[in-house]
Amino acid sequence: MTTQESSPVTRRRFLGISAAAGLGMLAADTAAPQNNPPLIIDAHVHLKHGDVARTEYSPETIVATMDKAGIAKSVVFAMSTSTQRSIEMAESAVKRYPDRLIPYVYALPNYERPVIKEIEQALSTRGFRGIKIHVGECTLADYVVDPVLKLAGKCGVPCLIDCGGKYDAAKRMAEKFPDTFLIIAHMGRYLCTDKKLVETFIGLAESCRNVFLDVSGVVLLDMIEEAVRRIGSSRLIWGSDGPDKKPDTVSYACAELAKIQHLSLSDKDKNNILGQTILSLLRL
Question: Are 233 and 210 in contact (CB under 8 A)?
């Protein structure tokens, strides 16, 4: 592995830092006209989950759920499978619904061969817009994730990372790869009830402009409002972490939407979280 150059500041790094610094303005500039309802984007949707059953959902189920819940587009990916299979599943889904679904590739090491070329090809020639990394199936050690993060910075795509509450790992990645946009899933840890831990991840986003916070699976809703005060809504991204059958896929998605809609935030902040931030980040 090679570390990124610290000086001089390269044109690519300058552009990356400038892009991160300007995302707040981008969100405002790309906001939907006032006479149109804002676009709702679900930025965390599983074609294949990481639960015990490795639950799969068809693109038809996902889009039908979106239609009934009022969701315009969804970022989709498959985990609990190989990188190549994740590419195939997401590519197939997007071919059926190209105007509704946005594909991410799942980065998972393979003992038989390197997968970095598969990831690069998906990003450069197959229309994939981001990368998913999950600590439940992949160590966050530098020798595994650093090539992926470096590639993401090179390609200008975000990495959605479930780091399982591992703050030190998240901090290392954010500081070592300032050109790479990191979306920290669940504001640090899924269903976390430890306010101090969530605060540390908000603090990381304060100190590292390339860090965004995904609010799926967040149960401390007041911490979302706290994050808006400290880092701004243009650094927060809504996702359902769905689909989920409990009680049914539509009710689940609507309940996750309601968590944001009922917060004590301005309409502009809610619109950023529910769609404009991820649209700006993905340059859509």
Answer: no
Q: Which two tokens stand for residue 138?
A: 């992949």
pLDDT in tens, 182-222: 999 999 999 999 999 999 999 999 999 999 999 999 999 99
Tell me the CATH number at 57.
3.20.20.140
Mean of the per-residue pLDDT values for the chain? Answer: 90
> Is there a cis peptide before residue 178, judged by omega within 30 degrees of 0?
no
| Rounded average pLDDT over 216-239 | 98
Residues 6+ apart with CB under 8 A from 92: 59
3-state secondary structure of 78: strand
Residue 1 lies in a domain: no
The number of domains in the chain is: 1
Q: What is the pLDDT of residues 32-91, one digit of tens each?
A: 444 577 899 999 999 999 999 999 999 999 999 999 999 999 999 999 999 999 999 999
Q: Which residues pair with 45 in a beta bridge?
A: 76, 242
Domain span at residue 127 reads 39-281
- The three-state secondary structure class of 7 is coil
- Residue 26 belongs to a domain: no
Give helix 142-155 / helix 11-21 axis angle, nearest 10°.
80
SS3 163: coil
Give helix then strand counts, H and E, for the chain. Answer: 12, 8
Long-range contacts of 225-228 (CB under 8 A, 24+ apart): 225/263, 225/264, 225/265, 226/199, 226/202, 227/187, 227/202, 228/265, 228/269, 228/273
